[in-house]
Design brief:
Chain lengths: 250, 448
């Protein structure tokens, strides 16, 4: 589904990603871990097309398409989704209008008519249940006045609405208490299918207790320096990152 | 300006004949001011964004003989604010004419031309016409010199006008033409009225100028809402001077909306003469291409315990130029006045320019006055967030610009108009603004 080859990227002239290669197949869950500043969020920003970052080398293929050649909206409409570490507040734009615009944009891309008002409301109601999102929140402006936990739930709600092929969850666990973490993780698990895939970016093992990864990668100084099974996350939790750095002479 | 002085002197008899005596009585003074006061050039005080001398430099014709007015115009024009039942008048150029809806009497409300008023209620014109407008200003003087007719709206004491009164101003000529328009609104004690003024141009490519002076008298406890909506073509120039005089406990709202146009200068002066009065000034300007929209507002608090609340918002794209000169003055011995002035601007393109000058002038201690001004761009983070959900960049921009205008639209106190404005603003931002739907010429500004 996703093939990243020797990806280099910079922000303000500073190189953050220094040769990332990664393959993700349908049905898989990958975890990307790593210390602060290793480039985890940069990777998610580059994949989704954040204009603040510049790709300096490498390639990314998503379902056979050159992902880096597409504008952010088309990447999304091809089925890529990012759950933001810091969801953006948009005063004056209601969640309902925001989601309707997103759904209809995707449908237009697929050559479909805009969704009917009745079907849209039905869809909203069904998907809210995935993360137990309060109906009142969907009538408010996007993320405005939402608590930290509500913002993260709202991200997963949007994921449920848009049914992406590949979802990147960027530190979705940060700022969540245990109950909210469980609700969010259960929501993500309900959305798992044989034909979609998830990349979980996290510092901690605890999210991976709920969302079981098939593969764990360690990103350090802009490169993936180690890839292994889920036991790697447990080992990191126990020993920290230093032993990895020592083992890999980085 | 000399060409207009010559025109007046040459056709003096025609300007005076049939015009109200109360207006003719002001012409001498008007002529003096026009002859002796040059129009302020760009860069002079309160004229940062507009060159009035340039606006009037074109040798516009004036319909001295009241010719070429198609009487079917008023009937054929249908302003597309659905479900809004109004008493509708049309002003073709500067010739007012009622439509069918305006012929049905509104109890306690008189709407008539100034020429009719001169015959029916000359004492009213004597008492009010030219009493609020400052004839010392060259723009007002020129209007006073050249106006031949206009409209009077008089709402009698205690009467709540049953439906909104709508005036559709239409410019349409094949050669450069100036429409000299005059509107006089008198709301007696405890009267209430809502006015919807729509400016349209039915032809593009020809310089057409609307020069309007509006005087509004809100007497004790009266409530007057004025929604002034311009949807004109890029060749249109509009110079509008509105003067509001408020008595005690009156409540006035003036909402000045520029959806499209060429060069727009709106001057709004409010004199709050009685205690306990409330003033709401709203403004919304959406400009693209090479459009100029300039609003100058002045609120003078002459009485204690009054509230004024002002908010103007601009979205400027392409090479558009915006201007806002807002001043609030609180006289001596006017305690407990509360006045707020806000001006928020969104520049959607690097080439757009905004000039803004908020000013407070306060001579009493016990008041609460403040102002706030911002100029910003679209929020890049919000834009990316929306695009990351599949919303195309242009759609995302449109949604953000609409959101920016949401509060000034929500402040409209006429439900149907509020809904319609949302729709019109939406269309304006997506580049498909037709003017009120049945205009033969669509005044659209295709965006990038």
């Amino acid at each position: 589904m996703l093939q990243i080859r020797d990806l280099h990227a910079a922000i303000d002239g500073k190189e953050i990603l220094r040769g990332v290669s990664l393959d993700v197949n349908a049905g898989e869950v990958h975890a990307i871990m790593g210390p602060n500043g290793s480039g985890k969020s940069t990777l998610s920003a580059v994949l989704t097309g954040n204009p603040a970052y510049t790709v300096t080398a490498g390639s990314v293929t998503f379902n056979g398409k050159d992902l880096l050649a597409l504008p952010p909206e088309d990447r999304a409409r091809e089925g890529l989704f990012l759950s933001f570490q810091y969801p953006v507040e948009i005063p004056g734009v209601s969640m309902v209008n925001f989601m309707r615009a997103a759904i209809n944009a995707k449908r237009a891309y697929q050559g479909l008519e805009p969704v009917s008002a009745a079907d849209f409301l039905k869809l909203m109601r069904a998907k809210r249940e995935v993360v137990d999102l309060d109906a009142k929140l969907t009538n408010r402006s996007v993320n405005e006045g939402f608590s930290g936990g509500e913002k993260k739930r709202n991200e997963i709600f949007q994921m449920a609405m848009l049914e992406p092929r590949l979802s990147i969850l960027d530190e979705t666990d940060s700022g969540l208490d245990i109950d909210a973490l469980r609700i969010v993780a259960q929501g993500v698990n309900r959305l798992r299918r044989a034909d979609n895939a998830i990349i979980v970016i996290t510092h901690y093992q605890r999210l991976l207790d709920y969302i079981k990864p098939d593969v764990v990668h360690i990103l350090y100084k802009g490169r993936i320096i180690k890839t292994a099974g889920p036991e790697l996350a447990l080992e990191l939790e126990r020993r920290g990152y230093d032993w990895i750095k020592d083992d890999n002479n980085v | 300006m000399q060409q207009y002085i010559d025109l007046y002197n040459e056709h003096r008899e025609r300007f005076h004949s049939g015009a109200p005596a109360a207006l003719n009585a002001l012409r001498g003074r008007a002529l003096e001011v026009v002859a002796s006061t040059p129009l302020p050039p760009r860069g002079s005080e309160d004229h940062e964004a507009i060159d009035l001398a340039e606006v009037f430099a074109t040798d516009y014709g004036i319909n001295v003989n009241r010719l070429n007015i198609d009487p079917r115009l008023a009937e054929s024009f249908h302003c597309d604010v659905p479900n809004l039942s109004t008493a509708l008048w049309c002003v073709a150029g500067d010739v007012p004419m009622p439509t069918g809806t305006a012929l049905r009497p509104l109890p306690g409300v008189d709407v008539m031309t100034l020429r009719q008023a001169a015959a029916r209620c000359p004492e009213l014109l004597e008492k009010y016409l030219g009493r609020a407008a400052d004839i010392g200003q060259p723009v007002v003087a020129l209007n006073t010199l050249l106006a031949q007719d206009g409209l009077l709206i008089h709402v009698h004491e205690g009467v709540d006008c049953a439906k909104p009164i709508q005036i559709v101003n239409i410019l349409n000529a094949t050669a450069p033409m100036m429409a000299v328009r005059r509107l006089l609104v008198i709301a007696d004690s405890r009267a209430a009225v809502k006015l919807l003024l729509c400016d349209h141009t039915q032809r593009d490519g020809v310089p057409l100028l609307s020069l309007q002076v509006t005087e509004v008298f809100a007497r004790q406890g009266a409530r007057v809402d004025i929604y002034d909506l311009e949807e004109a073509t890029p060749a249109t120039r509009r110079v509008n001077a509105t003067f509001v005089s408020q008595q005690a406990d009156s409540n006035v709202l003036v909402d000045t909306i520029t959806l499209s146009g060429g060069t727009t200068r709106n001057e709004l002066t409010v004199d709050v003469n009685g205690a306990g009065a409330e003033t709401h000034l709203l403004g919304m300007a959406i400009a693209g291409g090479t459009q100029t929209v300039d609003n100058r507002t002045l609120i003078r608090h002459h009485a204690p315990r009054c509230d004024s609340n002002e908010m103007y918002k601009y979205v400027l794209d392409d090479n558009a130029i915006g201007g806002f000169e807002g001043r609030i003055r609180v006289d001596e011995d006017c305690p407990r006045v509360e006045a707020y002035q806000g001006n928020r601007n969104l520049l959607a393109a690097k080439t757009a320019r905004m000039h803004t000058k908020p000013q407070l002038e306060i001579y009493t201690d016990d008041v609460r006055c403040s102002h706030g001004t911002t100029i910003g761009q679209l929020d890049d983070d919000a834009l990316f967030y929306m695009r990351s959900r599949g919303i195309p960049r242009d759609t995302a921009r449109t949604i953000l610009m609409q959101a920016f205008m949401a509060d000034v639209i929500d402040a409209v106190r006429l439900d149907v108009l509020r809904d319609r404005l949302r729709h019109l603003v939406d269309k304006r931002f997506t580049g498909q603004l037709a003017s009120c739907a049945n205009c033969p010429v669509k005044s659209s500004h295709p965006r990038d």
